Here is the input.
Amino acid sequence: MMNYNEYTKEGKTMLEKVKRFQNLLKEKHIDVYYIPNSDAHDSEFLNDCFKVREYMSGFTGSSGDMVITQDKAVVWSDGRYFIQAQKQLEGTGIDFYHLNDKEYPTIEEYIETNLPENGTLGFDGKVVKAKWFDSLYKQLEYKNIYYAYQSDYVNEIWKDRPAFPMSKAFLLDVKYAGRSMESKLKDVRKEMNKRNVSRHILTTLDDIAWLLNIRGKDAESNPVLLSYVVVEMDRVILYVKEEKITDIKSYLIEKNVIVKDYEDIYDDVKTFNDVWIDYERINSALVLNMNTKLHKEVTCIEMMKAIKNEIEIKNSLECQIRDCVALTRFMKWLKENVYTETITELRAAKYLNDLRREIDDYIEVGYGQIAAYNENAAMMHYQATEANYSILKKDGIFLIDSGGQYLSGTTDITRTIGFGNVDKQWKIDFTTVLISHAQLAQLKFLEGCSGMTIDIIARQPIWERELDYQCGTGHGIGYLLGVHEGPQGIRWYKALNRKEDTILKEGMIVTNEPGIYIKGSHGIRTENEMVIRKGVKNEYGQFLYFETMTFCPIDLDLIDMDTLDKKTRLWLNAYHKQVFEKLSPYMNKEEVEWLRHYTREI
Amino acid sequence: MMNYNEYTKEGKTMLEKVKRFQNLLKEKHIDVYYIPNSDAHDSEFLNDCFKVREYMSGFTGSSGDMVITQDKAVVWSDGRYFIQAQKQLEGTGIDFYHLNDKEYPTIEEYIETNLPENGTLGFDGKVVKAKWFDSLYKQLEYKNIYYAYQSDYVNEIWKDRPAFPMSKAFLLDVKYAGRSMESKLKDVRKEMNKRNVSRHILTTLDDIAWLLNIRGKDAESNPVLLSYVVVEMDRVILYVKEEKITDIKSYLIEKNVIVKDYEDIYDDVKTFNDVWIDYERINSALVLNMNTKLHKEVTCIEMMKAIKNEIEIKNSLECQIRDCVALTRFMKWLKENVYTETITELRAAKYLNDLRREIDDYIEVGYGQIAAYNENAAMMHYQATEANYSILKKDGIFLIDSGGQYLSGTTDITRTIGFGNVDKQWKIDFTTVLISHAQLAQLKFLEGCSGMTIDIIARQPIWERELDYQCGTGHGIGYLLGVHEGPQGIRWYKALNRKEDTILKEGMIVTNEPGIYIKGSHGIRTENEMVIRKGVKNEYGQFLYFETMTFCPIDLDLIDMDTLDKKTRLWLNAYHKQVFEKLSPYMNKEEVEWLRHYTREI
Here is the structure.
């Protein structure tokens, strides 16, 4: 990560950089240049070498695009980043516009206004989504615009650009993946047949990793490999830098996977016929290079990947136990040492990660860990840094949202841990969150429900108190892949580019993570993973239920007995009984006694 | 209502009738004739004179269309009617096809297959929806079909057709309606201006009644007037049979409403420009007669009508009390007399209706009353008839779903009343339904929720027991209008032609009516009306809550104390306290004592 303070101190440097780029635009006769915050694969988390908007503006937010004309520059982002963007763009001469605010022009309106008739719009088509471009193209048809879409001009001035990620691919054995590549390919080809297409282009990295049973380390905490795949009826082509696949070469040969250079796909697609593309996510350069009828539909892999097979579920369940043993040890350590040692948020997070590192099939830490004391926990995306962190005092609560990447799965768990004197109201909040969590965990529902229709089961106790956690209740999760994986999600409305209206199916894994966040005071979240299971099928339909996968004490020190209802109390006791049974075999005598106390019946 | 037994006894007569019609088709060179089960206004309930499909087939179901070719005849309907249709169509030579079943061709497929190139499709365009026709037209474009859409040929052979309804229109004073016609027109015209249209055609009868503050009695228990309205910027045209408006003529003159004959609209529309039509509901004859650019969007009246004004709400609240006094008297009568008198389902229903008839501003009974003993109550749409009813025995439960049409509103309430020995399991079911009902009644939710996203709050206790009530949890309700009124509805999915995804707004009225229905054994439902109110507005958004409008004892004899949770018990006690306070002033001493007992704290 770059340190944005550099830029704010050196707004002038940024100003000069933008001017240099604007001179380049004049030289190349580009009227408007568009820079999205994206890579060629529509990835959630960008490798540093793809952070072009960040380089050109100094704004480091995870979301927001940029437009540069020959004499102006604008960055757009949403409410989360208004304050940060203002700071980071100060003195740079770059304007900041609010997204989704009628007071400001949209990106598309701004591009339209600033393009003259017969003008030229420049962009790197590889990082611009095809669907967005098609819509813009229609909007601007009357202006007869020329599109310079093969122009990554920022590259020409970006001298110290981070290197293209060159991690080594590794194999995920079928004993972990649960299904062979052949078996998955068979299903994909069946779907291709149904749609009468001869090729399916895959551009999203987790879909490729899932299909080929391979992984890499090209993105931070997201074990994927920068590549494209074309599935044909009798062969598979993997487009990837050759140096990266040395360790899996024999596997690819054995499986008849043809390997071509990462960039070759852009030429190859020119001759393709009858192609199935995932139109919501493919980049525009690929689509602009094609001259064939396109079947535009989300890839069938999205749903195949979301519905975990029994081996993936079994592995994940075992993995969660080992992961939870680490977290439980951490809880014990924290509660026992916070009074006598100096524990910072950073040290606490490191202590837990070190415990995870000892686990057998550990690959790396999960993305977006949050370790936050008291009021810091009220900021949902708080990140302690060397420059900015808190020390845990003798009284208070500590929220830790973390997980690991293992050969046997991806974990994501949050616990809020108390010590010393904790305010009665904070305990009431903790208990409300527990009630929310338990209500969702116990839900039985008819097949046909989506995350949108069940969300309120978790939200109701919090809404009853006229509070809201203002984020989803839960998200899907990958298997040694993204810690956020679609399409399913639990939220009462459809968020932008999300699919919370996806019907929930047996085998999907979702998180259950309601919370209460009181600005400037404290934040509480209790998060487990759950897998959807089939229950009774009767005249009313197929019932489904959640099987909780995560077993780690929910801090009894933070329960407010006055507001805990009977049903939740019984659920908690039953849950803690399971926690003890599952974790104690992995613990020493002292740990077992601690666990017995913290999983006692209340 | 016709008695369908006539037809089943006389399948041969029906056969001859169809043959006579087929001869007519040959004579007129019509290859295929389509008969939907509809009137010109897309009404929920058809007047007998519009029951063309019933006349031509003998099938009396409330849903299902018919297609007649020169040598075949087919009726389609859904699962509710498979058994009934089979009986009623026996011996008629008419085939029965299941709707939404891939084993059978759809109506559109059947029409396509049976139409030769350059063939002719006949139908009465006034009763065929425009949207359906447009889609069929596209589907058949390649066949170069001629559409004889002004051909109500069934009329030519229907000698004893019931007369066109000629009820007298009456005025709904602004003290009831809460807003004047002018005020409503102003809002409608504002919406027309926004859309740049010069005319808005209204074809749905409740929209017309609402806008003009008039009512009629042209449909059973639905106080509407068969008419069309065209709203222009400076005048309003009401198309209606002149004899029907004698009582409101001076009102219409005063309000500058131009009156034309009911049928005149079909000629008038030929010259219209820039028209706004409610494309989902308008009939095809109107649209086919127009030669202008159409603005196709649901009428703005749908939402204006759904959001009740404060006077409508105030009137309804008062109306509900008088209505509930009647129902409470009925409960007392039933519980006291069922052991000694012969009470049939029909007598019970009549007793209650007679009590309602005594209420000041009573207009008529509400539509679709259900009075059902024990296992009959398990049939959600059970209707006791002179030919088929049950006598209430000394033990059991009686479900009554009823309401009235009043100048001060439309009521819809269900109570399940017990007497004698009632099985423990039935009481458990009653208590589960009560918990469901109370959970929804107590919900606080953020603005933005739809009926789809909140439904599960009511359904959860019933799903937990692996049961389901297989219908909506609640529906909107009119003001002296339809007992089912859109667009809002509470159900976890969007039903066909329904809009449960409508955002719930302050002032909307919905019913709260979960139930348990055990086939062959018993049925339980507890239904109140609720109005949506604004709660706290804070950093999280605008909270909304439900204010219960219906105050009538929920039978304490049917509560199972072992399964009643504390929260529901407290809700019930608070509710019953209000019931006593609101109803007792209208009751005599003996009734008050009874009410005190049946609203006691438990």
About this structure: Chain B has 20 helices and 28 strands. The CA atoms of residues 14 and 92 of chain B lie 5 Å apart. The longest strand of chain B covers residues 528-538.
